[in-house]
Amino acid sequence: MDTLEIWSSVLTFGGGTLLTLDALFVGRRIRTEKGAIRLQTALKKRKEENRSKNPSFTLTDENDKPLKTETELSLWLAKMMFHWAWEGYLLVTAGFVLDFISKLRKG
Question: What does the pLDDT look like over 83-96, one tens digit per residue?
Fold first, then answer.
């Protein structure tokens, strides 16, 4: 068996595992989003109650842009979770390319 065939199998399996884990953690992401929405609501309420004391109760993204709506919060959370799917896709693709190259070398 060729080294490329082994690596293609390893990468394809690793990518498939990442994509499977990404799919299995959907429940956790939903709970995270619900918790973040509750936190955002609580922070808005506290901000209104303490407007004169400290107006800095706001969720922000990595660029310090405030997340004002539930849609902005959902999009930010989806972007944070996107890396698992992307890494899985890259591994599966790399495995496919190595498999294809190994078959071309044999034929």
Answer: 778 888 899 999 99
